[in-house]
Design a protein that fits this description.
- The protein has about 240 residues and is an alpha+beta fold.
- It folds into three domains: about 30 residues; about 90 residues, 2-Layer Sandwich (Translation Initiation Factor IF3), CATH 3.30.110; about 110 residues, Alpha-Beta Plaits (2-Layer Sandwich), CATH 3.30.70.
- The protein has five helices and nine strands; from the N terminus they run αββαββααββαβββ.
- The strands form two sheets. Strands 2, 3, 4, 5 and 6 form a five-stranded antiparallel beta sheet that branches.
- It holds the Pfam family SIMPL.
- This is SIMPL domain-containing protein.
- InterPro entries: 26kDa_periplasmic_antigen (IPR052022), SIMPL/DUF541 (IPR007497), UCP029033 (IPR016907).
Length: about 240
């Protein structure tokens, strides 16, 4: 055979073999197959801590009289808390005095010069007692004590501080749920699952047990703790 024809034949054979290998791939270089699944676990819990700031204000043009009324209000609030078993739950008291005449802004057109605000901070593990007291604040209104809201808070905040205690069981349940989903996928696709390739715990969320529109989780004593685990499992033939 002519040397040029031989070289062309070898080249054509090489291109043909190269195309076959590209089309069929090398088994040693094939990417491992895997499946990504999510596992959800939830547990209903009850708040074990209540934090409740009670803020009230008096105003007037005689500072001594305003302070006297604030002291009267404070006595009424403390007596109210004692009635509900929360006398020892007051952990902080703050007082704020505003003199409108001393302020650099404004046009000095005000009815009352002095504004005195006081806040009693209640912190208690007896969430039932706090909830009962919060439902009875109308008694304070009847005594002339007008409670104010603190920002967006309109009452006690109920907190759950036991995440670390339930976290291992929650994660275990989430992983079991993810593995069950991976096993079902493998069964349906004619494969079997291998070891975990990658795992992501995800965030542990504390949600209101009853998803009332507009309600915050801190406003409900009963809550749901949720975790979603994302895992990649290898697939075997």
């Amino acid at each position: 055979m002519h040397p040029r024809l031989l070289a062309a034949s070898v080249l054509a054979l090489g291109l043909a073999l190269g195309g076959w290998f590209i089309g069929h791939g090398f088994a040693s270089r094939s990417a491992p197959r895997s499946v990504t699944v999510k596992g959800l676990a939830e547990q209903n819990v009850r708040a074990n801590l209540a934090v409740w700031p009670l803020r009230y204000t008096e105003a007037g043009n005689d500072l001594a009289q305003v302070q006297a009324r604030i002291q009267r209000d404070t006595a009424s609030v403390r007596a109210f808390l004692a009635l509900h078993g929360l006398a020892q739950a007051v952990v902080q008291r703050s007082l704020q005095v505003t003199d409108r005449a001393a302020q650099q802004w404004g046009n000095a057109q005000y009815k009352e010069r002095y504004i005195v605000s006081a806040t009693l901070l209640v912190r208690s593990q007896d969430v039932n007692a706090v909830a009962s007291a919060a439902q009875a604040t109308g008694q304070l209104v009847g005594q002339g004590v007008a409670l104010e809201s603190q920002g967006l808070a309109t009452g006690p905040s109920y907190l759950f501080t036991g995440i670390n205690a339930i976290k291992p069981a929650l994660l275990s349940a989430a992983i079991k749920a993810a593995r069950a989903a991976a096993a079902q996928f493998a069964h349906d696709s004619g494969s079997r699952i291998g070891p975990i390739v990658r795992a992501n715990q995800g965030l542990i969320e504390i949600l209101p047990r009853d998803p009332v529109p507009g309600a915050r989780e801190q406003q409900q004593i009963d809550k749901t703790v949720r975790v979603v685990a994302t895992l990649d499992y290898a697939l075997r033939d």
